[in-house]
Amino acid sequence: MCGIIGITQNNSEDLMEKLYQSLKRLEYRGYDSVGFAVLSQESIKISKNKGKVDEVAKQTDFSLMKGTTGIGHSRWATHGAPTKENAHPHTDCQNKIAVIHNGIISNFLQLRKELTQKGHIFTSETDTEVVPHLLEDLLQQGKSMKEALFELATILGGAYALVVIHTSEPNKIYCMKKENPLILGVTKDESYAASDIPAFLPYTREAITLRDDELATLEPGKYMIYNVKTGKTVSRKPHRITWTPDAAQKGGYPHFMLKEIHESGQVLRTQLASEISNVEQIAQAILDADNIITMAAGTAFYASLTTQYLFQQTFGKIVIPTIASEYETVLPIINKNTVVVAVSQSGETIDTIKAVKEAKQKGAKIIAIVNVVGSTITRIADHIVYIQAGPEIGVAATKTYLAQVFAIWRIYHQALLKTNQTTLAQQLQKAIQNIPDEIERIVRNDEAKARDIAKKIQNAQSAFYLGRGINLTTALEGALKLKEISYIHAEAYPAGESKHGPIALIHKNYPIIFIAPNDNTREKIIGNIMEMKARGAYTIGIIEKHDQELKQILHQYFEINPQYSKQLQNIPYQIPLHLIAYYTATTKGHDPDYPRNLAKSVTVE
Ligand code: F6R
């Protein structure tokens, strides 16, 4: 969703270049228009338009936008089409205040009506534009910017990360947040505010996470934080980001997505080397709970399904996977004996935040499986497992999906040890240790084949992904990835369910991807393959190595080493599907890193 950067520094030479580069690094969040504002000689210079960061930068004369304080924004349209007028920054009537915003001001219609009656002129259809006009009004009443912003916090409904500059304070940036992320970055001479860490990662790794109902003022090398409800200052020291600036670069790969698929093995290796004590505690909390509810969205939801397959089947625990935006359905059964497992790469997905907050209020213990350190969900959680995947820039999750599933496996492994299920625990331990190498082997071996399959399926209108048991998660994640970045309609079904409707769509060369490991699902899956083949489908299988029978039946196959059979499969079996999605998108000429209409971090409900 919207990308935010604010910079205040002593040097005026490179400000615009840094704003531009920072927005480039936020492109992965998804956007459709771009804008910059720089405080310069008691006026605000603005350049904005619909289009890509590079396009808007090309239309901007950087030499006319000299200053030491500026803001940049990439907008993902919600209120009003992607147009120049609706692009941020938005200003007040006198052009003294410029505002950028991520989130939705829920009461903007009423506020706009009142402000219009007072004579304010609006130039966009956005909800955001009420903010500069409201501030203008409050300043005219004699309030300082800080007082005006405190009052604004009592007026605005909805969610926001706001960054504001004013001509009367050419070295100051004001930031305020509620439910949408804002991270501050500091050095000796510079201060930054951003929607996400990669924006300022090359300039500083000292970061401060702003919390809800906080206002921060930034000056070059200085920051102050206030609680907007009490007006009191808040003391918070920066924490050091361990991600390196290189981790947010393509590093020679044509796309972030391919780089991230290649990083998957290393990510799991890093996770394996990390602290286990919190994982042990979480395993115990799950074993002690009456019921377990998972809450997540999209890919993270598919990863969370692993919890059900592992804990329900082995320990007889009731596990209810819940799509975060549908959390109300499970609220009545949440109590203090419930454990909620919240899975989220960003830790900022608003649907998941809302669900987790409600569950916490009802007494549930919250376990967060998250990538971004210090993100909102981690602050609500009782226990946290960081998946240690580093920055994921490609909009479509790949390495973080695997890292989320892996984190759940590790918890499961600890639960096996705690319940003395040693044989299974030993098998799992071996597979867990080997899995980073196996992933790297699969990526190396299967890229060429994925490219060939992409050529074959690129013109398909639709595709199915069929799996059984834990590999339904593999199928669901595979189908989501294909549709997100190649725009081929793809659906996943439990393979058994395919006969109850979907089979009606099958015609000659209809692509179907089967997840067909050598376990108790194999015979039934073979039956499903034969049914589909008989109707002309083009069949692709992810199979266990040397499964001669399946090799003969399928049109194409990817082979996975045997030790991942049974409940350990949904990491290695996923890799070929991520590769197929990537190569289908690129074969069709689409940019897999920035799929249309999608945003990396979904911060509106
Ligand atoms: C799909 C994808 C999304 C996210 C979802 C949740 O490739 O990336 O479906 O998984 O928006 O995001 P997080 O994990 O940040 O909560």
Report what the structure shows.
The protein has 16 helices and 25 strands. It has 3 domains: 3-246, Aminohydrolase, N-terminal nucleophile (Ntn) domain (Glutamine Phosphoribosylpyrophosphate, subunit 1, domain 1), CATH 3.60.20; 250-420, Glucose-6-phosphate isomerase like protein, domain 1 (Rossmann fold, 3-Layer(aba) Sandwich); 436-592, Rossmann fold. The protein is of the alpha/beta class and 605 residues long. The strands form 4 sheets. Strands 3-2-4-1-10-9-11-15 form an 8-stranded antiparallel sheet. The N and C termini lie close together (12 Å). The relative contact order is 0.09. Bound molecules: fructose -6-phosphate (F6R).
Keywords:
single chain; 16 helices; Rossmann fold; Glutamine Phosphoribosylpyrophosphate, subunit 1, domain 1; 605 residues; 3 domains; 25 strands; alpha/beta; seven-stranded antiparallel beta sheet; binds fructose -6-phosphate
Produce the secondary structure layout.
Elements: E1 3-9, H1 15-25, E2 33-40, E3 43-50, H2 53-58, E4 69-75, E5 90-91, E6 97-105, H3 108-117, H4 130-140, H5 145-155, E7 158-166, E8 173-178, E9 183-186, E10 190-194, E11 206-209, E12 214-219, E13 222-227, E14 233-234, E15 239-240, H6 256-272, H7 277-288, E16 291-296, H8 298-315, E17 318-323, E18 338-344, H9 350-361, E19 365-370, H10 376-380, E20 383-386, H11 399-418, H12 422-457, E21 462-467, H13 471-486, E22 489-494, E23 511-516, H14 522-534, E24 538-544, H15 548-553, E25 556-560, H16 575-587
Helix pairs in contact: 4-5, 6-11, 6-12, 7-11, 8-11, 8-13, 11-12, 12-16, 13-16
This protein binds fructose -6-phosphate.
Fructose -6-phosphate is lined by residues 297-300, 344-346, 349, 352, 396-397, 480, 484, 601-602.
